[in-house]
Design a protein that fits this description.
320 residues; Alpha-Beta Plaits
Length: 320
């Protein structure tokens, strides 16, 4: 593990004040306005501990959601919501057909179920992923907002200003990832801010800082994209040929003029397995074609009405 040289300046476990630019020590990056920041989530090392969920709720003072068991494996939060800005997906591959007859490394399992006692070495029937707002480069929620409550920060992240939000909810269906939610408590839209307040203070986002396996990595977007490419190449070399990135330029998740996602993922199964759209699009791109189609329909109906009226008038004249 690489330790930043500045760490030697703080040998004590108890500090009387905040460490300036602490993200340099915890994430290896100095946070500066004007640069692009985001998350790279490597699902292959996620252990489903939910430390990110807890850290997010504690830092943002968010109440618990759905206290109790849902009956769907170890998932108690269920989905992202106005009160849950990080959600760990637990996806059990209940039959070998779901894996195409192979494990995630491409090894033939001979038609066995993942619940069979006799399994291939190191084969796992679980997929885990910590889901979050994608902080899209072209954010559909921001395009749909009529009040400007959603805006791009100086760190290229997307944040909701609750004091400007009028609770119209247009952002909810506009988001292709089902992230934004309107709270029943205050009637305002809420979602992950990528810890905007922490970034302004030089702190790594709470979820990334709490992740024990570095499944969630925070940093400059260009560095994260390069890191993800190296990780995919490494997994391919190890025989995990199903590994790919979701949300990087020219990859699944960056379709439909989305360009790229500031919070992107490394996956080993189809996007739908992780409850992600295979080909997300910007609803704003459908406005012009829909308008043209609507006007064409109105024009056609008008012409039909004119022709009908003209025919009726002609028939009345002949009837005289």
């Amino acid at each position: 593990m690489n330790v930043h040289p500045r760490a030697r300046d703080y040998p004590k476990s108890s500090l009387g004040e905040m460490i300036p630019n602490e993200s340099e020590l915890t994430a290896g990056v100095k946070i500066e306005p004007g640069k692009q920041y985001g998350f790279f989530t490597d699902t292959t090392v996620c252990i489903g501990c939910k430390a990110c969920e807890v850290a997010c709720k504690e830092w943002n003072n968010l109440p618990a959601d759905n206290v109790g068991l849902t009956g769907h494996s170890y998932d108690n939060t269920g989905a992202l919501s106005a009160n849950t800005w990080r959600h760990v997906n637990f996806i059990e591959q209940s039959s070998i057909q779901a894996l195409g007859g192979q494990d995630l490394g491409g090894q033939d399992l001979g038609g066995k179920s993942v619940r069979d006692n006799d399994q291939a070495p190191f084969q796992s029937g679980w997929l885990m992923m910590s889901d979050v707002c994608k902080h899209c480069h072209h954010a559909p929620c921001m395009e749909a907002c009529p009040t400007g409550a959603l805006f791009k920060t100086e760190f290229d992240t997307v944040v909701v200003q609750q004091d400007i939000c009028n609770g119209c909810g247009y952002c909810v269906p506009a988001c292709p990832f089902g992230v934004v939610d309107v709270s029943k408590a205050d009637g305002k839209a809420h979602k992950c801010t990528l810890c905007y307040d922490r970034l302004k203070g030089g702190l790594e986002p709470a979820c990334a800082k709490s992740c024990p396996t570095d499944s969630i990595q925070f940093g400059e977007l260009s560095d994260l994209q390069a890191r993800a490419k190296r990780r995919v190449d490494e997994l391919h070399a190890r025989g995990v040929h199903t590994a790919y990135t979701y949300g990087t330029p020219d990859s699944p998740g960056a379709t439909g003029d989305m360009k790229y996602l500031n919070a992107f993922f490394l996956l080993t199964d189809r996007p739908e397995a992780y409850n992600l759209p295979a080909a997300p699009t910007r609803p704003s791109n459908r406005v012009a074609p829909a308008l043209v189609a609507g006007l064409a329909t109105l024009g056609g109906l008008a012409l039909a009405a004119v022709a009908l009226l003209a025919g009726s008038s002609e028939g009345a004249r002949h009837g005289r």
